[in-house]
């Protein structure tokens, strides 16, 4: 991808996610204290209990950053969307959490090498034009012995059941959330996003190994998914009942 096309695509993505900033927290983040505790437990199991300097890449409205701050970590959150960052700052301030948020590109981080003890992301890899480049960046800013943690999902495929789920999801958005259910990436943009439909965990494992991580492993997050689905409207429970997982590895 040439530099001009890359820059143009990033501007489109920035504008797209800016437009979703007012509804993202309600749609994509934990809807119960129990689910939030489940995310906290997952992060503690992977990162350990001692205080770490953690970068949350593609932080959105800062949900995972807030979870990490609550369990005692020093957290920085970055996102390409200025408006997402604004919302993240507002929510974190209301919750009394000290988190550093800044605008940044997940594929071209501004931080120096080995700045963080861990890099985490939640539902980000599938949005990126250059996921391999992104993971290399995440590895670069992680100190030796630190971990890179990727949470993502397998959102849809070409099957009839996936198309039906997508249609029900759009109907649910129209009925329950009163937002445009047909607005997504333009087709030309979707064609530039390798994992637009989500990505199988085995592929993420291979990407992380290719980018230099060791002891890479993954686990399905069925328990977290059930807690999230439990608090969704009925149509959403059908449409968004898709597998999610975490993949993590250690920088040598």
Structural features, described:
By secondary structure, the protein is of the alpha/beta class. The chain has a single domain (3-250), classed as Rossmann fold. Helices cover 47% and strands 19% of the residues. The protein is built from eleven helices and seven strands. The chain has helices at 3-19, 21-28, 33-47, 63-70, 82-94, 131-140, 160-177, 187-190, 201-210, 222-230, 234-239, and strands spanning 53-57, 74-79, 100-103, 116-122, 142-153, 214-220, 244-250. Strands 3-2-1-4-5-7-6 form a seven-stranded mixed beta sheet, sandwiched between helices. α3 runs antiparallel to α10 (222-230). The longest helix has 18 residues, at 160-177. The chain is globular and about 45 Å long. It starts with a helix and ends with a strand. The mean pLDDT is 88. Residues 55-150 form the Methyltransferase type domain. Keywords: Methyltransferase, Transferase, Ubiquinone. Pfam families: Methyltransf_11. GO terms for molecular function: S-adenosylmethionine-dependent methyltransferase activity. InterPro entries: Methyltransf_11, SAM-dependent_MTases_sf.
């Amino acid at each position: 991808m040439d530099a001009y096309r890359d820059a143009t695509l990033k501007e489109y993505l920035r504008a797209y996610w800016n437009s979703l900033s007012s509804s993202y927290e309600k749609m994509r983040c934990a809807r119960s204290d129990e689910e939030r505790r489940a995310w906290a437990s997952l992060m503690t199991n992977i990162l350990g209990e001692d205080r770490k300097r953690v970068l949350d890449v593609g932080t959105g409205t800062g949900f995972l950053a807030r979870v990490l701050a609550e369990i005692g970590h020093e957290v920085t959150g970055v996102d390409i969307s200025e408006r997402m960052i604004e919302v993240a700052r507002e929510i974190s301030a209301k919750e009394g959490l000290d988190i550093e948020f800044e605008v940044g590109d997940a594929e071209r981080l501004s931080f120096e090498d080995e700045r963080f003890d861990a890099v985490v992301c939640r539902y980000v890899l599938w949005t990126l034009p250059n996921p391999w480049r992104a993971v290399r960046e995440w590895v670069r800013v992680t100190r030796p012995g630190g971990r890179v943690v990727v949470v993502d999902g397998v959102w849809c495929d070409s099957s009839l059941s996936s198309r039906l789920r997508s249609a029900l999801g759009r109907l649910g958005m129209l009925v329950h959330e009163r937002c445009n259910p047909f607005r997504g990436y333009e087709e030309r943009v979707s064609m530039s996003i390798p994992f637009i439909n989500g990505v199988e965990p085995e592929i993420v494992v291979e990407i992380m190994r290719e980018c230099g991580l060791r002891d890479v492993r993954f686990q399905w997050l069925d328990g977290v998914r059930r807690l999230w689905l439990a608090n969704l409207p009925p149509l959403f429970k059908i449409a968004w009942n898709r597998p999610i997982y975490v993949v993590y590895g250690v920088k040598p």
